[in-house]
TrEMBL record:
It holds the Pfam family DUF6931. This is Twin-arginine translocation pathway signal. It comes from Enterovibrio gelatinilyticus. InterPro entries: DUF6931.
Amino acid sequence: MSFVKIPHPFAQNILCQYEPQDGIKPLIEPGMTPEQLLNRALQEGLNADAVIFLAHALPVREAVWWACCCAGRRQDWDEAQLDAIRAAKAWVYTPDETSRRYAESTANAATLQNGAGWVAQAVFWSGGSMTGPTDPVVPPPEYLYAQAVAGSINLTAILPDGAEADARYKLFIEMGLDIANGGNGNIGNAA
């Protein structure tokens, strides 16, 4: 089986987009598919590595949507954090410059100490310029949004104290795999 939303046939094509963590490196073999590497990482309990890999494997809108779906499972966000999640969702539906800039402002208000702020930051880093609207254009580094998506999902899974991390990771990764297979990520029970 191959993931319909992952445009890369080999895991190595995805791993070239970022610096993989030491935990996942020994699992890599030539010719592995993304699914094979993900399965190995999950068998080894490398949830955070699997999230980082899948965040880089998915196209930008699907990756951001995945982080939105994960953040949407939490019920303990404050209003600024909820605004950040809503802004990211709005960008998924209307990925324009106005939505991207609004996500930037909500990420700043929510802060980057939580998954909600990071999902809005992922939107801001999805394209356009990292400088102000009237400043010279400075595009974000390629795949920087994927690092923010992974940060969002990993923080959403482990904060505040890690007590529910295993259950959340299981659900969040299942949601990501659903999206990779063409689904909408709306599965499972609230974590």
